[in-house]
Amino acid sequence: MKERILSGMRPTGKLHLGHLVGALENWKELQQEYECLFMLADWHALMSEYQNPQELKSNIIDNLADWLACGISPQEATIFIQSHVREHLELYMAFSLLTPLGLLERCPTYKEQLREVTNRDLSTYGFLGYPVLQAADILLYKAAAVPVGKDQLPHLELTRQIARKFNNTYNQELFPEPKALLTQTNRLLGLDGRKMSKSYNNTIALSEAPQELRKKVQGMFTDPQRIKLSDPGHPDKCNVCTYYKVFAPQRQKEVQERCSSSRVGCTECKRELAEVLIKFLEPLQKKRTGFIKDKGYLRSILREGEKKAAAQASKTMDQVKLLLNINKDIC
Ligand code: TRP
Ligand code: SF4
To answer: Measured between alpha carbons, how far is 41 from 2 in angstroms, rounded to an integer?
Structure first.
């Protein structure tokens, strides 16, 4: 019996290289070792995008095509849309009953988002409950582990606390406490050296067109101490060099040497990196285009995934309802 894992992404926009290196490559590997559930978290997307839901559907299709192009396989993993399995919200409600407000208010991701996000109103009841829904996502399937990046660790800790509190309250070991499977891969920074994120406008999309990609790479921040071509560079402090390390490791040494001996300038170095990335993304983009055209296939994947997920979800909810005395046999 393989252990079960669940992970999710919010379909809020185009996926980028950060998603590939930080999550999707990892998910792909995990498919062999674990029973995997991969979820498009549309309710979670709505928690911040509720004022603009217009693009939700196209984002879901777009993200799904990227997942498949990156090697996430419907034969190996259960791929589904969160809102299509109603039990997520039912369990979310059950957890809301016993989640202490203070835990949510103190959650570091919550405080950070309230501080950082200024173009949307996130001071809502729903947004406060973000980690409660995430706990429901995970515990509905009694996942043993959750592949996440470091930024999600507070949510996983909350999930464990909620599981514990539920089990204690109803005196039943219903929910296992899931562990984090930290993504160990190289973290890829954005074009400006900050975390790669759509809201920082520093990403390269997996679907980026070559011309656009060249422009973006040319604008990447490099070693700040290297001003003239004759200044020797410090490749170990340069984000461009990290990109070579991730996408063309066989060239990293050469790139370092010619940089620190000032044989090649940053413009040339970045020009070549752009071509490396274009080549790297080419097969992925070809597959992606094929999937996007085949809506019938995408729909069938989601329908299949929903069926498998819902079967497990309803089992868990039956157990929860029994404990809460809200099951159907009223007399
Ligand atoms: N909060 C996660 C993120 O922003 C997405 C997510 C929703 C998730 N539900 C999940 C991740 C359950 C892991 C498990 O990345
Ligand atoms: Fe970075 Fe390349 Fe410029 Fe060196 S030459 S500082 S590695 S961009």
So the answer is: 24
